[in-house]
Design brief:
Elements: H1 15-28, H2 36-39, H3 41-71
């Protein structure tokens, strides 16, 4: 007997992607008058948060290393 393997993938759009599409549609339909930076914010805010967290972790690691050097 052969076993069948079925894979299911959720290849849908994310919540933030759907929100960005909604905002773009509202902007192009002249329903909202927001600047484009805010219309596209669902796309760039998560990236900015990740970059900010990475920079914060690197800054803390650098301070810890600096304190270890000073204490010696």
């Amino acid at each position: 007997m052969s076993k069948e393997v079925k894979t299911v993938s959720g290849g849908g759009i994310s919540f933030l992607g759907a929100l960005a599409l909604l905002f773009i549609g509202l902007k192009l339909g002249n329903v909202i008058t927001w600047p484009w930076i805010w219309v596209l914010s669902p796309l760039w805010i998560p990236i900015a948060l990740v970059v900010g967290v990475i920079l914060l972790v690197l800054a803390i690691a650098g301070l810890v290393a600096l304190v270890k050097i000073i204490v010696r």
